[in-house]
Amino acid sequence: MKKITVLTLIVGCLLSSQSRADDSQALQQQLGAINSFKAQFIQKVTDAQGEAIMQGEGNIALQQPMMIRWQQQSPDETLFVSNGDKTYYFDSFAEQVTIMNTHSLIDSTPFVLLTSKDPEQWAKYQVLATDTGFSVTPNKGIESQVEQLDIAFSDDKQALSSLTVMDTSGQQSLFTFKNAQVNQPLATTTFEFIIPEGVEVDDQSQGE
Question: Is residue 64 predicted with pLDDT exceeding 60?
Fold first, then answer.
């Protein structure tokens, strides 16, 4: 009887692992079909108790491989731009630009999966299919500020409809997209950033 129970548990684990692998492959295929994505977003942030603490809006642009432009327009103006090599974070209120090495930065967040086909990156995360899309969580031992990333797609599966991010403190940010453009040509300047004169520069990309 004990042997049967153990065998059942082993088979169950194997099937569960295969299911997660299939879900990961399905998400990779779906994201891989989105060569570029551009949209406006509305952001709603809630705390660990579910209480609303912030609302905002902005726009996003993604392009394979590993290019992103995330511009927050309210409540604060910030800009996050990656050209696939270097990443720039500009806080206009603080008048500061932080420069990071993209390949080092992406190790700490599953957001990389939105624009990466790198098997090494995908191997760091568990992917489970949901009713609206997929849920992504870091494997044990992977340091990440994001505890869970839920990716939802439009009804036709051609575009992202929302992202839900839960950080390690339990705070949840919901980004709902509108006016999405999928696989439309994006200007090369979209993922470029020119450092404004007179701002403080914190270059963390050197020596990485």
Answer: yes
Tokens of 22: 């299939």
Decide which of 147 and 9 is more confident.
147
DSSP labels for the chain?
A: -HHHHHHHHHHHHHHHHHHHHHHHHHHHHHHHT-SEEEEEEEEEEE-TTS-EEEEEEEEEEEETTTEEEEEEEESS-EEEEE-SSEEEEEETTTTEEEEEEHHHHGGG-GGGGGS---HHHHTTEEEEE-SSEEEEEEPTT---SEEEEEEEE-TTSSSEEEEEEEETTS-EEEEEEEEEEES----GGGG--PPPTT-EEEE--TT-
Whether the Cβ atoms of residue 202 and residue 70 lie closer than 8 Å to each other: no
What are the tens digits of pLDDT across the range 122-146? 888 999 999 889 999 988 888 777 8
pLDDT at 185 exceeding the cut of 50: yes
